[in-house]
């Protein structure tokens, strides 16, 4: 895992977007098309702002999947990840090839999982942009995460720490209003990405970063599985990196 400590969130996001943008351009040049995964949440604001401004990307040749979505939440809700990405990314790039939306409020949840798993099957994922949760989750794979399941998308139960993070970031007015379940991309599917680029700012993520980078690979710290990925870049600000004994690579 390559670790980069940037002075502030904007620089962190710009560096991460530049790495990802370069990878996207190369894959389009080689293959004529590219598939990427985007994450959401407060940690991705600056990266997405920079990514939509990356020059030389033919977005018409890019397919975007996203990592997760709350079960039962309509796309009109302020915390909907579909809404987040449509507003912060899809609407800001010209002629995106495809955006595969997770319909968390689908009447047939099993059918929605089957649809998503069928759509992503066979796609070569060039870049996965992601973050790490305060509880060290990766996507919505809260501890203890399932490291063995092969299904690309799964239904998961959110633990209290995860739900409190969503409350603390201002997405919901009360803990009770935070959904208890979500559709999440699985750990194994995330690790199939050829390149993983993580943006993780803020002191509240410092313990999770230390566990992910320097702890044992364990389902109790789901993001620790990233230690086994051959091309993973972790972009931190100084508060997020404060507990690391290894400050850069």
List the helices and strands and how they pair.
Blueprint lengths: L1 E4 L3 H23 L2 E5 L6 H7 L10 E5 L1 E3 L10 H8 L9 E3 L8 H12 L4 E6 L22 E5 L2 H9 L12 E5 L1 H5 L3 E6 L5 H9 L17 E5 L1 H4 L8
Parallel strand pairs: 1-10, 2-3, 2-6, 3-5, 6-9, 9-10
Antiparallel strand pairs: 4-8, 7-8
Short description:
Helix content is 31%, strand content 19%.
The outline comes out as globular
Q: Return Rg in Å.
A: 17 Å
Major sheet description: 7 strands, parallel
The number of helical runs is 8
- CATH architecture group name: 3-Layer(aba) Sandwich
Structural class, from secondary structure content?
alpha/beta
Description:
This protein is an alpha/beta fold and 249 residues long. The protein has one domain: Rossmann fold (3-Layer(aba) Sandwich), CATH 3.40.50. The protein is 31% helix and 19% strand. It is built from eight helices and ten strands. The protein has a seven-stranded parallel β-sheet with strand order 1-10-9-6-2-3-5, sandwiched between helices. A three-stranded antiparallel β-sheet has the order 4-8-7. It is globular and about 40 Å long. The model has no long low-confidence stretch (mean pLDDT 95).
